[in-house]
UniProtKB/TrEMBL annotation:
Gene name as annotated: purA
Annotated residues for binding of IMP: D13, E14, G15, K16, N38, A39, G40, H41, T129, R143, Q222, T237, R301
Protein task: Plays an important role in the de novo pathway of purine nucleotide biosynthesis. Catalyzes the first committed step in the biosynthesis of AMP from IMP.
Naturally occurring in which organism (per UniProt): Hymenobacter telluris
This protein's name: Adenylosuccinate synthetase
Cofactor annotation comment: Binds 1 Mg(2+) ion per subunit.
Entry EC number(s): 6.3.4.4
Sequence positions that bind Mg(2+): D13, G40
Length: 423
C-alpha cells in the first residue's frame, strides 16, 4: 500500500492542516517529515479551532497512528505544551503517537541563537519564527546535534552541557550571551516527559506498517517556496519542504510514493521577509488579509497578501510531481469584482517568461496579470460542487489548463465540512 504526500505549494499556511484532517479518515498513519514548531497547522471541526505545531494533524482520529519523523526538529517544551492542550480538550493521544529517536532536539540555546543570528543580519532579516529551527538544522548537518534518542543515554546531561558551551562561543562571536538559565528547568522537565513517550526507530515502524498494507499520509510543513534548495534563498526555512523530504524525513523509499497533494490558496500569502512578486501593498491586499484572517498561526504576525502566482505554482508542481491540487480559501475572494492571476513575468526589456526568475531578477521583473471576473457569491454555504458559480468554475478550469494538474478539492471555509470534492 502506498504513501501519499501532502505539501504546500506556496510560502506556507496554505491550509495543509485542514486538508490532512479532511483526508485522514482514509489513512492509517499520518507522519510529519520535516520542520518543527515554526509550523502552525489549523484544524476546525465541531465549532472548535485547534492549532498544531509539532503534533501530526491526524491526532484527532482515534484509529490513526501519528508519527513525528526523523526529519523533524522537536522542541520538547513546546511539544509538552501542545500535548497538554490536547489532553485538556479530552483527546487521548498517548497510544497513537510515536516519535523518531533520530529527530533532532531543539535546545533553549538554539532558540537563543536564532534570535542572535537574526539580530546580526541587520536589514536583511529572514523573518524567522525564532523557534530555533535554523540553528538546530545547522547542528544536524554539522553533525553536532542532539537527537531524541540521546535523552535515553546516561550521559545526556553532559552532551547537553557540551552543546550549550559550543553555542555560547557562537553567541560570543556576536558579543552576546545565551541567557537561557531560566529556561533550563522547564527544558529538563520536558525532557523527563519526553522519556515517557513512545520513542522508536520510526523508519522501521513505517516500513513494517507499509508491509502490512497500511496507508500512510506524509504531512509536509512550510511550503515549496520556503524549501532550503529551491525556495527564495536565503529567505527560506532550513529543511527540504518538498516531496523528496518525505523520503529522507521518514525513511521511506521513493517507490512507495503514490499521490502527491499540492495545497495552494486561491491567492497567495507570505509571512517573513523575502521576494513576493505578486504582493499587493494597497487596499486590495488589505481586503484579502481581513477576509482571509491572514495573521500567522504561530507568531500572530500579519501575513503579506497578493494574487496567485502561476509561474511559481508551476515550479512547485514540477519539483513535487503534484498529482492533484487542492485550492484553498476560495471563499476569501467572494467579494471581489475582479480577480488577477499572474501568468508571466516581464523583464525590463519587455521580454516575458513563465519560469520563476532567480532571486536577483525578481527585484527588477514585473508580474503580468490576466484578469478574470469574480463570482460575487457566498461560497461557505455551498455543499454541492455542481452549484459552484460559473466564474469560479472558469477560474478553476483556467488554473487546471495552465498548471496541467487537476484541482480535486475546492475549500470554501475553515471547517472540515466546508470542502467541495470535485472528483
Ligand atoms: P497550514 O500551515 O498550511 O496548515 O495553514 P494555517 O493553518 O497556518 O493557515 C490556514 C488558515 O486558513 C487557518 O486559519 C485555517 O483555519 C484557514 N482556512 C483553511 N481553509 C480555509 C478555507 O477554505 N477558507 C477560509 N476562509 N479559511 C480557511
Ligand atoms: P506552516 O507549516 C509560513 C517562514 C518564516 C520565515 C522563514 C524562516 O504553518 O505552513 P524559520 O523559523 O523556519 O527559520 O523561518 O520561513 N515560515 C513559515 N511561513 N508557514 C510556516 O509553516 C512557516 N514556517 C516558517 O516566517 O520567513
Ligand atoms: Mg501555518
Amino acid at each position: 500500500m502506498p504513501v501519499d504526500v501532502l505539501v504546500g505549494l506556496q510560502w506556507g499556511d496554505e491550509g495543509k492542516g485542514k486538508i490532512v484532517d479532511v483526508l485522514a479518515p482514509t489513512y492509517d498513519v499520518v507522519a510529519r517529515f520535516q520542520g518543527g514548531p515554526n509550523a502552525g497547522h489549523t484544524l476546525t471541526f465541531d465549532g472548535i479551532k485547534h492549532v498544531l505545531h509539532q503534533v501530526p494533524s491526524g491526532i484527532f482520529h482515534p484509529h490513526i497512528l501519528n508519527v513525528v519523523g526523523n526529519g523533524v526538529v522537536l522542541d520538547p517544551f513546546v511539544f509538552r505544551q501542545e500535548l497538554q492542550k490536547l489532553t485538556d480538550r479530552g483527546i487521548d493521544w498517548a497510544a497513537n503517537l510515536y516519535i523518531s529517536k533520530k529527530a533532532q532536539l531543539i535546545l533553549p540555546s538554539h532558540r537563543a541563537l536564532d534570535r542572535i543570528n537574526e539580530e546580526a543580519r541587520g536589514g536583511s532579516k529572514i523573518g524567522s519564527t525564532l523557534k530555533g529551527i535554523g540553528p538546530t538544522y545547522q547542528d544536524k548537518i554539522g553533525r553536532t546535534g542532539l537527537r531524541v534518542g540521546d535523552i535515553l543515554l546516561p550521559d545526556f546531561d553532559q552532551r547537553y552541557q557540551e552543546a550549550v558551551a559550543r553555542h555560547a562561543t557562537l553567541a560570543a562571536f556576536h558579543n552576546q550571551k545565551l541567557e537561557i538559565e531560566e529556561l533550563e528547568a522547564d527544558f529538563f522537565s520536558a525532557i523527563e516527559f519526553l522519556r515517557t513517550l513512545q520513542l522508536t526507530d520510526t523508519e522501521y515502524l513505517l516500513n513494517d506498517l507499509l508491509k502490512q498494507g497500511k496507508k500512510i499520509l506524509a504531512e509536509g510543513a512550510q511550503g515549496s517556496l520556503l524549501d532550503i534548495d529551491f525556495g527564495t534563498y536565503p529567505y527560506v526555512t532550513s529543511s527540504s519542504t518538498i516531496v523528496a523530504g518525505a523520503c529522507t524525513g521518514l525513511g521511506i523509499a521513493p517507490k512507495h510514493i503514490d499521490k502527491v497533494y499540492g495545497i495552494s490558496k486561491a491567492y497567495c500569502t507570505r509571512v517573513g521577509s523575502g521576494p513576493f512578486p505578486t504582493e499587493l501593498h494597497d487596499e486590495v491586499g488589505e481586503q484579502i488579509r481581513q477576509a482571509g484572517r491572514e495573521f500567522g498561526s504561530t507568531t500572530g504576525r500579519p501575513r503579506r497578501c497578493g494574487w496567485i502566482d502561476l509561474p511559481a505554482l508551476r515550479y512547485s508542481i514540477m519539483l513535487n510531481g503534484v498529482t492533484e491540487i487542492h485550492l484553498m480559501k476560495a471563499d476569501v475572494l467572494d467579494e471581489f469584482d475582479e480577480i488577477h492571476v499572474c501568468t508571466h513575468y516581464e523583464y525590463p526589456n519587455g521580454q516575458q517568461t513563465d519560469h520563476l526568475p532567480d532571486y536577483g531578477d525578481l527585484q527588477t521583473m514585473k508580474p503580468v496579470y490576466k484578469s478574470m471576473p469574480g463570482w460575487k457569491t457566498e461560497l461557505q454555504q455551498l455543499t454541492d460542487p455542481q452549484a459552484l458559480p460559473g466564474e469560479l468554475k472558469a477560474y478553476v478550469q483556467f488554473l487546471e489548463q495552465y498548471l496541467e494538474v487537476p484541482i480535486s478539492i475546492v475549500s470554501v471555509g475553515p471547517d472540515r465540512v466546508s470542502t467541495l470534492h470535485l472528483s
